[in-house]
Amino acid sequence: MTSPSQAPSDPDRPAAADTRWPDAEELVVGAGAPAGGEPGEAGSPSPLPELAEPLLAGYLDAAVAALRASNPGDLPGQLRQYQSWTPRRLKHPRVLALVRRSLDLDQRFRTAVDERVLQQEDVLARLLRAGRHAEALASGEPPEAVARVGLALGRDGQAAVRAAEDALVRSRAQAEAAAARSALAGAESELEQARARADEEAAAARAAREELRAARQDLRRTEREIQTLNQRNLALEQELAKSAATLQSAREQAADEQRRLGGRIAELQALLAQTQRQYRALRKASGQIDPAVAEAVGALERDLSALRRATGMDSAVKGPSGPPGTRQPERREPLPVPSGLTADAPESLAAWMATPEVLVLVDGYNVTKHERGFPDRTLEDQRTLLLDLCRRLARRCAAEITVVFDGANLAPLPTRLPLGPIGVVFTDAGRSADDEIVARVNAAPASRPVVLVSSDNELRERCAALGANVSRSTALLGLANR
Fold it and tell me: Contact 167/140 with Cβ under 8 angstroms?
């Protein structure tokens, strides 16, 4: 830290200049020395009045400027060493105190400063000499400028200095009042904001209370629902226990029923063996079996197969039960499907129809009423078109084809084309074409291959169980243009 007697370093000041700050003793000693450093050279001016710092600062600035602009010989001795200082360093409070002291003691320096101020403020000086300081202040001149010129005018400017002082006081009072009003307005605004926040917080508190009340109600409702669900769960567990007991009882009953069905299957197998023996005997006697008997035998075989599948004995029971030494009945073996084809492919049907001694049974209306058949024609036209197709196929493949239609009373037999190598059957009233076809499959010898053409799934299953090949209606229709 620099001591009071040491001046701080400043790059703007000359190196040879005295850089000591004036101390209190120098101020006192310098107070008695007249201008030029020789006593009695000039009279002492009246001291500067005690004014507020803003009012006196302008006059001191003018004194500092005069200090720098004057000849060294015209300055008081105590100020000459500071003439080369920069304006910033001359603003030091100790230097300003020495300058003010010199203004109070050195008339020549005071006069130089007054002349400088009056020269710079010539217009304002004329107004103040004329006593029009109030007009100057009213016109917008700042109190600081009026006070600076008033100090330069001496006694003629005392009134202006007092007016400037009053104006500064009023300005400060107005500024303080404005600040107070601003602070009051800010306080009122903050109060309004605080009230608004308080209202919002009160509304939020009310909303929170409502939400809490609703949450409590939801909680009570949820607790009641949980209690109800617990009761329902208990009831379901009881029902589940009852269902488990019922299921166990049903399983036991099913086991009993399975044992009963096993005995029934054995009976049916014995009956089937007897019927087959009778069938073979009838074939040897007449070479032809009644369709009704064949259908009955087929029905028995289907029932037996269904019972085997239902009881899980299909794999365990391979043939009819009977006394040791009973021979297995003859069964028709279906023709093999050509390699790379399906049973419903037209090529497969053509290959089967080319087999020697094959019997082809056609479900007539099932073919004609198919969407790829002739469903939009009359029944007579449907029959005529189908029989024409079968006639051409029979001649091409040398196969025996029989077409079966439902109901002999539906329409007369077509007469517009010769039937040729095909047969046509119209069933009697009360007998379906499906039953007639199954009876004819049963009636054919087991060594003769039989092919059924129909898309009726039930009929296909019945005939397939008797060893016949089955092909859909689309396979026969697909051969129409070949």
Answer: no
Terminal CA-CA length for the chain: 125
The residue count for the chain: 482
Q: Which amino acid is at 372?
A: R
**DSSP 3-state of 334:** coil
Residues 114, 81: Cα–Cα separation, whole Å: 22
Residues 162 and 146: beta-carbon distance below 8 Å: no
- Reported as a single tens digit per residue, the pLDDT across 350-388 is 999 999 999 999 999 999 999 999 999 999 999 999 999
Distance CA 6, CA 21 (A): 6
CA distance linking residue 153 with residue 439, whole number of Å: 152
d(CA 4, CA 214) in angstroms, rounded, equals: 78
Q: Looking at residue 24, what DSSP letter applies?
A: H
Q: What's the CA gap between 268 and 308, in Å, rounded? A: 11
CA atoms of 125 and 129, how far apart (whole Å): 6
Write down the pTM of the prediction.
0.36
Q: Is 105 helix (H, G, I), strand (E, B) or coil?
A: helix
DSSP, collapsed to helix, strand or coil, labels residue 341 as coil
Kindly provide the b/e burial profile for residues 145-169, where b requires at least 16 CB atoms within 10 angstroms of the residue's own CB: bbbbbbbbbeeebeebbebbbebbe
Task: Give the closest residue to 464 by CA, choosing from 452, 456, 447.
Answer: 452
Instruction: Report whether 273 contacts 266 (CB < 8 A).
Output: no
Scored b (16 or more CB within 10 A) or e, 441-463 reads bbbbeeeebbbbbbbbeebbebb
What is the pairing mode between strands 400-405 and 450-453?
A: unpaired
Among 467, 469, 161, 480, CA closest to 330: 467
CA 161 distance to own-chain centroid: 79
- Residues 110/152, Cβ–Cβ less than 8 Å: no
Only one residue has tokens 């029971």, namely 317
Question: CA neighbours within 13 Å on the CB side: how many for 142?
Answer: 10
Helix axes 107-120, 93-105, angle to 10 degrees: 100
Q: Are residues 467 and 446 in contact, defined by beta-carbon separation less than 8 angstroms? A: yes
User: For residue range 426-474, what is the model confidence (pLDDT) as tens digits?
Assistant: 998 888 999 999 999 999 999 999 999 999 999 999 999 999 999 999 9
Q: Are 163 and 133 in contact (CB under 8 A)?
A: yes
Q: What are the tokens at 260?
A: 């009963």
Task: Return d(Cα 177, Cα 314) in angstroms, integer.
Answer: 115
